[in-house]
Amino acid sequence: MRLRTRLALAFALLALVPLAVVVPLTLNRLRATLSRELDARMEGATTSAQEALERSAERAQRAVEELVESTAMEDLARDAREAPTRAIQADTAAGLMKSRGLTVLSLFDGQGTTLSSGHLPARRGDPDPNLFAVTQQNASKPVPVRVSVRSVEGLRDVPALVVARPVDDLRLWAVGGVLLDEGLAQHLARITQAQVSLRSGETVVAQAGNVPAPTVERVIPLGNAAEVRLTFSRAAVLEAERGVTGAFLLLAAFGLAFAVLLGLLMARRITRPVEALTEGARRVAEGARDVQVTAQASGEVEELVRAFNHMTSELRSTTERLMASERIAAWQEVARRLAHEIKNPLTPIQMSLETLLAAQSAQDARFPTLFRDSAAVVLEEVDRLRRIVDEFSRFARLPKPQLAPVDLGELAQNVLSLYATPPEGITLLPTLQTGVVARADRDQLTQVLVNLVKNAEEAMKGKGGSVRVRVKGTETDAIVEVEDTGPGIPPEHRARIFEPYFTTKEGGTGLGLAIAARILQEHGGKLEVGGEPGEGARFSVVLPRAL
Fold it and tell me: For residue 441, with 0-12 CB atoms within 10 Å meaning exposed, 13-18 middle and 19 or more buried, which class applies?
């Protein structure tokens, strides 16, 4: 490879290496920042939804308590003691419910019989176990229950927040509250900017709002009666990531192109006299005696050009004075010496640059500042590039495994001892067969198992579950399985899960499983993935068994 090409590549790599380090780091930090902002927005929206539900419950509670303490209810209770059927009609609760802004209201006697129902008048005379059960809970605040209401499809159960209060020494009860219906879903969608689904079991009772995919969900449970599911869009975050990534890649492309162009120009300026000397030496080697190098140069290269021109002049005059036989012998000697002197042109070039730096340090005014700076940059950056490449080479190269017999049951027990106190909600379940021995590098295999157990715990973070670690052996294989009860691995990801830099985690690098797979490959084993999506993941370390 020619010197000009080497210098141009050095300039290109000099620009590429910082970009390769800075751009991924910046993008990772950007993704982390955007993810944190989305999480903060979702937390704020979830809190606002919870506060809105609490305010609805508080309004319903105040309305029921005001109704129970009202003069109308006292008169109704007094009349009911004398003539219940005449005092409490089928539409009595409906009038009281509308006047208080409630959407659920039933009046019960002490045995749980419905005397009047505002939300379902046909219930009069029948029991309503779901609503009357609230009177037995002694709850000071509204509780979630399923309430039967009539719709165009017929009777259906709708979740509601209700509170029960006695009216007449436990002989008459008022149970009222608000339905969790379409109006509430629309209100929550407005304040959270999310898609809101009110669910009762597997049934969607009400839904409002619409957000583009991909999405992430937050759930607000309301006892066993219902849940509020908030669906947020990640489309804006992904669009911002793509935009910034494109801008960084475009900037990197322009920077690399500029570095290549600058490298070519600088390399051409530096190597032009050297190439002229190389061409002159080639012509001299071919037998020419009148070769003169006219390329402009400075410093040691200029002295080298003058020395070369002087050498060719002396060679011509000497050969002209010698006899034919002496000319032949002299030419052979000169050619031999010249070939020896120009055998490796890179060595005198580097020596010339080092001499140039030494002369500049001595403040020799004969050398232009531009050439001094260029020579310093070339030497400094070539050395720096070599150090960087060496550091990355040492970092990326795994040491050769030091194989020795290892009891996998004992090794797994040692790894699990590092997790003696697992995160809350996570249980470690070891099933370790003794006497399963494989030839392996103990430290590298420990690294693999620690990585697998850590991944299993992270898969169940916030949800809880169990991590089962099994050690078993067959006639030919020693096997360690790490299985969790997390979300599992989708089939479309399994083909790429061991590729470097492939990851589905927020904030993750994608090197853990790739390094683990490589370690096992160098041990003559393999790393396998299994488990059903949605039911957990299972990673199996398979090594040749030491017999």
Answer: buried
Q: Cβ(173)–Cβ(135) under 8 Å?
A: yes
To which residue do tokens 């949800």 refer?
Answer: 463
Q: Pairing between strand 426-432 and 465-473? A: parallel
Token pair recorded at residue 287:
């037998």
> Is 380:373 a contact under the CB 8 Å cutoff?
no
Question: 122: which 2 tokens?
Answer: 């046909």
* Structure tokens belonging to residue 503: 């990851």
Confidence bin at 340 (pLDDT 50/70/90): very low
Query: What is the structure's pLDDT at 356?
Result: 62
Where in 408-507 does DSSP place strands (E)? Answer: 426-432, 437-440, 465-473, 477-484
Q: Is 185 exposed, middle or buried (0-12, 13-18, 19+ CB in 10 A)?
A: buried
- How far apart CA 416 and CA 457 sit, in angstroms, is 12
Angstrom distance (rounded) from CA 271 to CA 371: 12
Which are the contacts of 78, defined by CB distance < 8 A and separation ≥ 6? Answer: none
CA separation for the pair 480, 478 (Å, rounded): 7
Statement: residue 527 has pLDDT above 60: yes
Place of tokens 């898969």: 459
- What is the pLDDT at residue 323? 40
DSSP state of 167: S
> Do residues 176 and 60 make contact, with C-beta atoms less than 8 angstroms apart?
yes
In terms of C-beta density within 10 A (0-12 exposed, 13-18 middle, 19 or more buried), how is residue 395 classed? exposed
Q: 3-state class of 2 per DSSP?
A: coil
Report residue 89 as tokens: 């009609």
DSSP 35-46: HHHHHHHHHHHH
What are the counts of helices (DSSP H) followed by strands (DSSP E) for the chain? Answer: 15, 16
Which amino acid, one-letter code, is at 14? Answer: L
Distance CA 199, CA 206 (A): 7
Is the pLDDT confidence value at 240 over 90?
no
- pLDDT greater at residue 46 or residue 314: 46
Say which amino acid occupies 257: A
In this prediction, residue 385 carries a pLDDT of 43
Question: Taken in order 174, 179, 183, 184, is the CA torsion positive or negative?
Answer: positive
Lowest-confidence segment of 135-139, 158-162, 344-348 by average pLDDT = 344-348
Task: Write the DSSP symbol of residue 545.
Answer: B
Distance CA 175, CA 121 (A): 14
Six-digit token string for 501: 């830099």
In tens, the pLDDT along 344-387 reads: 334 444 555 666 666 667 666 655 654 555 555 455 545 544 54
